């Protein structure tokens, strides 16, 4: 029961940390299931159940963590308000990672299959890189490793412009409309997942007022004055 967390004990915040860590690991489960579907596995009742049930569990965990933080703030004799607000912020990002991973499974529902695509290697490169980024983010959050967190943010930041380039390429593609749409959506969802992972990591390296900005639109392109996807 959630109420068993809230005893104003010194362990409360560490228990919340553990729950947030598990939420990100669960998001990786949704992500892996969705990717398996679009890389040859296709849609299935089993995969749909994994995606839907795990995502629902993440949503429930988000609500429980919010309750834990609110009650802890109300009854604990010495509350670290900045930490509480930081956790409130990052659980939203973890929930969104699960949601965008679920969106990738929707591509399989529409018939997308990248397994034999001519650009399969490139598509899979980003699939694997973001999967590792998600796992690494969970590890550094658990360890409180600020140095590695910053390195991961820097690495992930490079991906954002690359995703934009791929979306533009898809838009200008002379291939079939279905292929172009599949890639534009794929890279768009990957951009959102990556940005929310970066937001999650900022809780370790930035002051509270600077959290949660990597999911904002990128700067306007100086040449064509169009917003990046």
Helix/strand layout:
Blueprint: H1 12-41, H2 45-75, H3 81-109, H4 120-143, H5 146-171, H6 177-205
Helix pairs in contact: 1-2, 1-3, 1-4, 2-3, 3-6, 4-5, 4-6, 5-6
Describe this structure in words.
The chain has 229 residues and is mainly α. It is 74% helix and 0% strand. α1 runs antiparallel to α2.
Structural class: mainly alpha
Rg, Cα atoms, Å: 19 Å
Helical fraction: over 70%
pLDDT averaged over residues: 85
Distance between the termini: 42 Å
Which tags fit this structure?
229 residues, disordered N terminus, single chain, disordered C terminus
Would you summarize the structure shown here?
The protein is mainly alpha-helical and 229 residues long. It has helices at residues 12-41, 45-75, 81-109, 120-143, 146-171, 177-205. The protein contains six helices and no strands.
